[in-house]
Design brief:
Length: 353
Amino acid sequence: MKSYSRYALVLATAVLPMSAGVAADPQDPSAEDVVVRRCPVDFERTVTLGSMANGILEECLVQQGDRVKAGQVLGRLECEEIRAEIRLRELEAESDIDVRLGEAKKAQADDKLRRTVALIRRSGSAVEEFQLHKMEAESAALTVEQAKQRRQLAQVQLKVARSRLRLREFVSPHDGVVVAVPKHKGEPVAPNEPLFRVVDVDHLLITAHVDVTEVERVRIGQRVRIIPEIAGADLPIEHEVFEGRVCFVDTHVDPLTQTCKVLVKAENRNGLLRAGLEVRIEILPPAPIAAAGKAAGAPEPAKIAVAPDASKPAIAPGAGKPATVSDATKTVVPAGPRQAPAVGAAERTRQIP
């Protein structure tokens, strides 16, 4: 009977802190989702391409609805003059005739100067003739440098002409779908007039206005569930769930609505969502840290060994000391150097819930 009383005491000691901890733990409001309805959907990237100068649309290489890649040319303005200038600059940059001609003149002037110096040493030729030949040699050297500089200048002008040609091309800055082509080949174009519109339909940007009482629970990077909601209809798209993340939380609160703007980025799976739809977003709370409960001293399940018979307490043979209870696991273990031998299938370990 004493052994049973002892085990009952250990059991009560392990269970009471656990039940007390459960009763004292209030519900944390930060663990709830932040739900916002009627959030408009838009595409993350949309670009409208236009001309910077007057001209004629020479080429229109895409149609409305075409998928394009980043860097793809969509169209060109008329640019025959620029192409002719590019060809001229290419010839000037590639030609080295002026450089070779100047080097030949320099070599001739240097040879004449050397012969003049030799004559002065042998027969005392006039110094004026030496100075004249020296100036001719220096002038020939400057002519060579000038020819090289003109060639470098032609190479720079060639780059400028090519950049002017690129300005008359319309290039898509990102992958997407062409949704508008208001002009056709051969039509005149004015400055800042829109010619092509490309949208990235694979990436979405959702705008939500979170109540000021809940915005403190929203952080950049939190996971978001996105559920389409269409008023007055029950469409298959409303049963789809999309995943996204918070990318922006405004620091300004609207004084009229007492809300704060929050932006969510999401992948448009299979292109199911369209710009202009409204969705419900559920901003999930941050994932709990597994070690937080242990750091706060949360109780762990206790294990207690149950003896098969009250009249036969578990004592290690030859130990001469009664069994003790371990504080770490609340498990009855023998105090001696060896474990008690197994006494049969009736002895087992029971876990306290």
